[in-house]
Amino acid sequence: MEKKIYIVKRISKGAENINTYWIAPEDGKLMDYRPGQFLMLFMIGPHGTPEPTGRPYSIASSPTNRNYIELNIKMLGHFPGRLATLKEGDRIAAMGPMGIHTFEEAQMPEVTLIAGGVGACPLLSMIRYAAEKRLRNKITLFYSARTPADVIHCDELKALAAKDPNFKPIVTLTRCEPTAMSGMACEAGRISPEMLRKHVGNPAAQHYFICGPAAMADAVAAMLEGMNVTPDRIHKEGWG
Ligand SMILES: Cc1cc2nc3c(=O)[nH]c(=O)nc-3n(C[C@H](O)[C@H](O)[C@H](O)COP(=O)(O)OP(=O)(O)OC[C@H]3O[C@@H](n4cnc5c(N)ncnc54)[C@H](O)[C@@H]3O)c2cc1C
User: Are 89 and 121 members of one domain?
Assistant: First the structure.
């Protein structure tokens, strides 16, 4: 797979400590991808060519958007420190799309998305795709965040939920009381079988996408298996 040059079109703040980058291919030819996939990003070295080592970042935009790709990056660590030096108009390289955990609307009428922190990024692509295409699939999002300020694109999620009865976001706050969240359903503590049953009609009938820290993703997948969800319905991506 080849590395392709992109231009950084826009940089904004997606949430606390999260930068949103909009990148577009220099040659104007945006690749096709599915909601849930990611790119490998590479900085451009001093000679104008991509560096050999990159990092994976999930595509948060919908594949129906043919103008740019949106990435949301937690600005902590080595590579994000380098991304922080980028300005609008700069060049960056990317390879992809990659990843097999993709939302397939025809086979997944009911989907439950479970995000831990920045793990919400690939799930945002699925939510935006379903909204853009006005799909009838039922999508429930459980989004674990420390505080309301950590919820990426919180206002957009609220607006989508207000418009579409098939999309139901639930935030679970780990460092605040649920009353700290306004305009969106909120629960306290970690996702539990009771919480799942309360918000999702029939847990065994769902397709699950879990994305977040590896320990969290493993724990949620084990919980689902304990609830008799078959492994083919559990799509898990653990980072770190
Ligand atoms: C499929 C996937 C999708 C992801 N999507 C997102 C996303 O959408 N948003 C997001 O914020 N994060 C995402 N991540 C996490 C992201 O790829 C990085 O891991 C994260 O940004 C932290 O980068 P890091 O360089 O600090 O460390 P790491 O990625 O943990 O470091 C990985 C490697 O870099 C080496 N390394 C660390 N420091 C240095 C250094 N100073 N010099 C040279 N090498 C070094 C380490 O030895 C290690 O081998 C995703 C991860 C995966 C696997």
Answer: no
Sign of dihedral through CA atoms 4, 8, 13, 14?
negative
10 alpha carbon – ligand 1 mean position (Å):
22
- CATH number at 75 reads 2.40.30.10
Q: Please count the structural domains in the chain.
A: 2
Which band of pLDDT confidence, cut at 50, 70 and 90, is reported for residue 183? confident
Boundary-marking domain end, from 98, 125, 156: 98
What residue type is 180 in one-letter code? A
Q: 117: CA distance to ligand 1 center in Å?
A: 15
Please state whether the predicted TM-score (pTM) of the whole model is above 0.70: yes
| Model confidence pLDDT, tens digit, residues 57-68 | 999 999 999 999
To test the ligand 1 pocket, which listed residue (16, 18, 78, 86) has its Cβ within 8 A of the most ligand atoms? Answer: 78
* Same domain (yes/no): 161, 93: no
For the stretch 164-194, what's the b/e string if a residue is b when 16 or more beta carbons lie within 10 angstroms of its beta carbon?
A: bebbbbbbbbeebeeeebeebbbbeeebeee
**pLDDT tens per residue across span 120-150:** 999 999 999 999 999 999 999 999 999 999 9
- Residue 187 belongs to what domain range? 110-239
